[in-house]
What does this fold into?
Amino acid sequence: MDSLYIAPSLLASDFANLAGEAKKMSEGGADLLHLDVMDGHFVPNLTFGPCVVQAIKKNTQVPLDVHLMISQPEKYIDAFIEAGSDWLSFHIEATKDARTLIKRIKAAKVKAAIAIKPKTPIEEIKDILGELDMVLIMSVEPGFGGQKFMPEVLDKVRELRKMPDCPKWIEIDGGINMDTVGPAVEAGVNILVAGSAIFAADDPVGRVQELRERGRSCSKG
It folds into this structure.
């Protein structure tokens, strides 16, 4: 594995100081900043919209990894592109025309990704793998932070890595901490989203580096 990215999830940060949290993570060596967008419909929680993404974009040089946990993503893709998304993922379960959305995202020079829930089989995205920059594997049920890691989803990662059209990047989101980083990387993950494990640490910046070092030590190379 030639690259391993750490993507702090701002869902677990201090919402009253998002700009400061983003700046701290940027200066602390984060590779991406992960932004979970929830609509209260596709998942039972609400977070933020394009205006917040745009505000964060102004306060960091680190690429924004925007994860849309929303129904009918086709209605909102353009707004999140314009807000400054650098990586943009939507759920295969939320649309009937994933291929068109991927084309729209890539036409805007944004990296396109598909996210899948823990119970969604890889076969659901097999036909479009070759068009993707990344696959986002949810290792918890989407909607809330702080949930327990579901190790069974790592079978999906292993299955993906065996497929000829598998994109370079496989991201995992949910329950990532110092104990679960190793198994995730060993399975083939190379983007690690971590929320509570970073922002609840006594030294959040130091934890970013600890996660990276733990992941690299477990990498198959």
About this structure: The first helix runs from residue 18 to 27. The two ends are 5 Å apart (CA to CA). The chain is about 30% helix and 20% strand. The chain has one domain: 5-218.
